[in-house]
Design brief:
heterodimer; A: mainly beta; five-stranded mixed beta sheet; 8% helix; 35% strand; globular; B: alpha/beta; five-stranded parallel beta sheet; three-stranded parallel beta sheet
Chain lengths: 80, 279
C-alpha cells in the first residue's frame, strides 16, 4: 500500500455516515452512486440529499462520502 | 374548457391523492374509475422491502404526477423536499404543504408563505395547500402560486366544507385556479365545492378509504361535473319564504283552507248541541 497522501484513500479506512437516519460505517471514498446501488436495483424516481442539499444524479458518481455526512435517499410513495 | 394551471391544460377536475390505499391494485382500479389525469405522491425514505411502485402505476395509466411536501413542518423542510421531488420526478410542479402539528394537520400560514416565495423564485409551479382564509389565499396568489388549495376541513376528517362562505370569498377574488383540498367526505361535498366556484377538487381519503373506492371515485367524478354545471347554470337566490312556481292566477276556490278566507261561511253554529235545533 502506498504511503503519504494515498493513505487517506485506502478502502480499509472507514467513515461513519448516517443513511436515512441510520448510522453506517462505509469505506472512505464510497460514492453516492455506490451507496444508492446497494439500496436496490431500481434507481428510477430516486433523489438524494447530502447534508440537506440535493445532489443531482449526474454528480452521484463523483461525490464521495466524508465522515459524519448525512444522506437521505427518497422515493415517491403513495400520499397526499 | 379544461382546467388550466400555469398554462398547462388539465383534463380532469378531480385531482386524486394516492394515500390511504392498502394495495396498488386497488389504487389502480380507483384511479381508473376516477378518470383523473393528475395525482399526488409523497416523498419518503426508500424502503427496499416495498414491492411495486406508485410511479409505475401512474406512468402506466398516463397520469401526471404531482409530488407533495406532506409531513413538512417548516419552510426549509418543504423547500428541500420539493427540490428532491423535482430531482426524482423531473417535474417542477409541487403541491406545497407545510403543516403546523400532527393533531390538526392544519397548514402553518407563516411557513407556507415563506416556502411559497422561495419555491416560486426557484422556478417551481406551486400549488399551495392552505387554510380556508381568504387573506392567506390572496397572499399566496400574490406570491406567485399557480393554484391555491384551501381546505374544506382538516385532512382525513370527511367533515366536508365547514366554512362555505370563506370558500366562496376565496373563489370570487381569485385569478388563479382554486382547488378544494382536504375534508371531502362524499360526493355531495365535491359538488358543493364546485358550486362555490372552485375549479377542481383534490380527494384522497374519501376515495381510498371508502368501502368501495372505485364506486366512490366515479361518484365524486360525476359530482364534480354536476357541481360545475350547476355553478355555470346560476343557482336561484335563497329566500326566507316560499315562492310558488305554479301560477297563482286562475286558481279554483274549491275547498279553501281554514283560516285563510274570511268570507267562508261558518257552519259551526248550526251544528252545536247548544244551539237551536235545525228547522
Amino acid at each position: 500500500m502506498a504511503a503519504g497522501p494515498e493513505r487517506a484513500m485506502s478502502a480499509t479506512d472507514l467513515v461513519e455516515v448516517r443513511l436515512n437516519g441510520a448510522t453506517q460505517r462505509v469505506p472512505a471514498s464510497t460514492t453516492i452512486a455506490a451507496m444508492v446501488s446497494k439500496l436496490g436495483p431500481n434507481a428510477a424516481g430516486l433523489a438524494v440529499a447530502l447534508n440537506e442539499e440535493v445532489v443531482p444524479r449526474s454528480r452521484w458518481e463523483c461525490t464521495e462520502l466524508a465522515n459524519h455526512d448525512r444522506i437521505e435517499v427518497l422515493v415517491p410513495t403513495q400520499g397526499g | 374548457m379544461p382546467l388550466v394551471i400555469a398554462g398547462t391544460p388539465i383534463e380532469s377536475r378531480l385531482i386524486m391523492g394516492t394515500g390511504g390505499m392498502p394495495s396498488l391494485d386497488g389504487l389502480r382500479d380507483a384511479l381508473v374509475a376516477s378518470r383523473t389525469t393528475i395525482a399526488t405522491v409523497a416523498m419518503r425514505r426508500i424502503d427496499s422491502g416495498v414491492p411495486g411502485s406508485i410511479l409505475d402505476v401512474l406512468t402506466e395509466l398516463g397520469i401526471r404526477v404531482l409530488p407533495n411536501t406532506a409531513g413538512c413542518f417548516t419552510a426549509r423542510d418543504a423547500v428541500l423536499t420539493a427540490r428532491l421531488a423535482r430531482e426524482a420526478l423531473a417535474t417542477n410542479w409541487v403541491k406545497l404543504e407545510v403543516i403546523a402539528d400532527d393533531r390538526t394537520l392544519l397548514p402553518d400560514p407563516v411557513e407556507l408563505l415563506d416556502a411559497a416565495e422561495t419555491l416560486v423564485s426557484d422556478g417551481f409551479v406551486v400549488l399551495a395547500y392552505t387554510n380556508d382564509d381568504p387573506i392567506v389565499a390572496r397572499r399566496l396568489e400574490q406570491a406567485g402560486c399557480s393554484a391555491v388549495m384551501p381546505l374544506g376541513s382538516p385532512i382525513g376528517t370527511g367533515l366536508g366544507i365547514l366554512n362555505p362562505h370563506n370558500i366562496a370569498l376565496i373563489t370570487e377574488a381569485a385569478s388563479v385556479p382554486i382547488v378544494l383540498d382536504a375534508g371531502i367526505g362524499t360526493a355531495s361535498d365535491a359538488a358543493f365545492a364546485m358550486e362555490l366556484g372552485c375549479d377542481a377538487v383534490l380527494v384522497a381519503s374519501a376515495i381510498t378509504r371508502a368501502k368501495h373506492p372505485p364506486l366512490m371515485a366515479e361518484a365524486i367524478a360525476r359530482a364534480i361535473e354536476a357541481g360545475r354545471l350547476a355553478r355555470k347554470a346560476g343557482r336561484i337566490p335563497k329566500r326566507d319564504h316560499a315562492q310558488a312556481s305554479s301560477p297563482t292566477d286562475g286558481r279554483a276556490n274549491l275547498y279553501p283552507a281554514p283560516g285563510l278566507s274570511p268570507a267562508r261561511p261558518v257552519p259551526a253554529a248550526g251544528l252545536s248541541p247548544a244551539g237551536p235545533a235545525p228547522s
